[in-house]
Amino acid sequence: MPVAAPSLLTQLRVAIRTRHYSPRTEEAYVQWVRRFIRFSGLRHPRELGPSDVTRFLSSLAVDANVSASTQNQALAAIVFLYRDVLNMPVGWLNALVRAKRPGRVPVVFTRDEVRTLFAQLQGRGAGAATLVIELLYGSGMRLVEALQLRIKDVDFGAHEITVRGGKGDRDRRTMLPERVQAALLPHLAEVRALHERDVAAGAGWVALPGALGLKYPNAGREWSWQWVFPAGRAYDDPATHQRRRHHLHETVVQRAFKEALRASRIAKAASCHTLRHSFATHLLEAGYDIRTVQELLGHRSVETTMIYTHVLNRGGLGVKSPVDTL
Q1: Sequence-separated (6 or more) residues with CB below 8 Å from residue 143
Q2: Is 276 a catalytic residue?
Q3: 215 an active-site residue?
Q4: Domain closes at, from 94, 119, 154
């Protein structure tokens, strides 16, 4: 890669962080821009045009066989590069035809399947992972949102959880179920004891969002900023030389979920995100207003939430088959 490329990627990272995009978005955009430059013979993006972008996107679909959503993410990264890093007109990029995502109904558990899954989790003693999985179904949060919860975001008095910097960098509130609350209290007692031991050992720090660490130098050690689900191991941050704990890693929860799903013999291609789909669908089945469900899920548009009306447990969208009338 040419000498200018590393500095270009650095500029890209700075631009993404300035706009408060998530770390996942940052890594995805950097990877797509890197792939675009390599595909184009290591030429600088300023030297490229619509035909180069079209060839790259076509190669993703034909050679790499990527999905429409992945292809659109690659285009979004390239648009961001030209518009926000290189400060170049992007009218020609916006004119490119985006791949159409095929309509898919989400995988949803029945209530009995959720009970079976939870029974397997309880029997396997998955600990914090079990609590996270129950919280996903009980609150409708995404996995990353649940793992990034801090102590101050859980309000036992109001029975609610504040999700900070969710998808689109938006905050929202969702419910704190009574069942999860009962299990969360003893869990947090253990987390607090762990934090106190860390502090006594000269550690006890966590990473803070944005520049809060500079504004409040001691906040990273305060109880309110600690993770609700901390990792089992601490690490040394090279920039601050602080002994920190990260939150529980996603793979710990995903592994526990997959093992319980396999043991439950539920024949569905499910993931942790299926619990979020099930949360929304079961609320609609119970008669809750779709606008309420939209706010709990944090959807920008009610049209996104309406997809769950297609998987309500009504048997063929609530239509009675003529054969059943014979």
Answers
A1: 132, 136, 250, 253, 254, 272, 273
A2: yes
A3: no
A4: 94
